Amino acid sequence: MAVRIGIARETAPGERRVAITPETCRKLVALGAAITVERGLGRHAHFADDAYAAAGAVLADDAAAALAGADLVLCVQAPSPALLATLREGAAIIGHLQPEADPARAEAIRTGGLVAFPLERLPRTTRAQAMDILSSQAGMAGYKAVLIAAQLAPRFFPMLTTAAGTIRPSKVLVIGAGVAGLQAVATARRLGAQVECFDVRPETREQIESLGGRFLDLGVSAVGEGGYARALTDEERAEQQKRLGEHLRGIDTIVCTAAVPGRPAPKIITAGMVGGMAAGSVIVDLAAETGGNCELTRPGETIDAGGVTVAGPLDLASSGAVHASEMFARNVFNFASLLVSDGALVLDWDDELVAKTAWPPREG
């Protein structure tokens, strides 16, 4: 019997993305899977029910029907604990699940005998790159953050020479040179701004400069493991903040993207730094979802802090739902391909990606 894959509509507030597109649906059917999707699944991402049906999916009238008897469930964000409780014992689920962030969700996975594969737990290896939802979605978020900054800024980003005189380009500082930060650098440069990027990892200099940005060296290095930054010591943080605060006086727009996986976003911009910035400056804090890099950030709000606009947008990847969904769905398909063999669900615990992504964690 073919492996049964079910996909229900996303219910998290503001979520517009989908974990399966007609393209990846067709590929899963080719692997021997029987696909059931809830009607209206792709409405907010502009994927029609007819497109899913043409790709080989069966349309169900509600979430319970879409997931009934499913061997494998695909999602962007985890279904509610109540819906998880309806899944059959032994079913697998793939998505951005964050089980440890919600005790009720974690309990539903455990008591239901489910095998969860939170893709945010993927090992950081070359082979895993095609399944890396954090990187694919961060690219969209970094792009959108710069567009928001340009919209909020009371000035042009590019230099303009007009009959009324020359307009100097905006000075943009991107904080954090991960995927989101590098996309932000590239996007701000395309808009014509003068762009700098600060990261405590000096090895990011080459990537920043390759995109046309200037590496801002504040004399503090925090090289960590796996390509991520380590937490700074109190002394390092004090020195960093002193030098950064002085530099921010000449910056028009800041885009914050710094993050440490599994921990609250590091506080890099203090209220005092914001107070020293010129009126009309803009801060867009992409890290708002995990607390923000700016001390004044209010997640989901845009505020005026003494003439400086501080925005803490949420769900930025979801705001680019078409391309974000296409990338997310390909990530999910590539991981699901590890679990589907000859039309059946096969969990190969000798595969590092399968074993290390699984939750609850496998013993041994």
Automatic annotation (TrEMBL):
Stated name of the protein: proton-translocating NAD(P)(+) transhydrogenase
Gene3D superfamilies: NAD(P)-binding Rossmann-like Domain (3.40.50.720)
Top enzyme class: translocase
Lineage: Bacteria, Pseudomonadati, Pseudomonadota, Gammaproteobacteria, Lysobacterales
Enzyme Commission number, as recorded: 7.1.1.1
Main function: The transhydrogenation between NADH and NADP is coupled to respiration and ATP hydrolysis and functions as a proton pump across the membrane.
Alanine dehydrogenase/pyridine nucleotide transhydrogenase N-terminal domain residues: 6-141
The organism of origin for this protein: Luteimonas padinae
UniProt cross-references to InterPro entries, sorted A to Z: Ala_DH/PNT_CS2 (IPR008143), AlaDH/PNT_N (IPR007886), AlaDH/PNT_NAD(H)-bd (IPR007698), NAD(P)-bd_dom_sf (IPR036291)
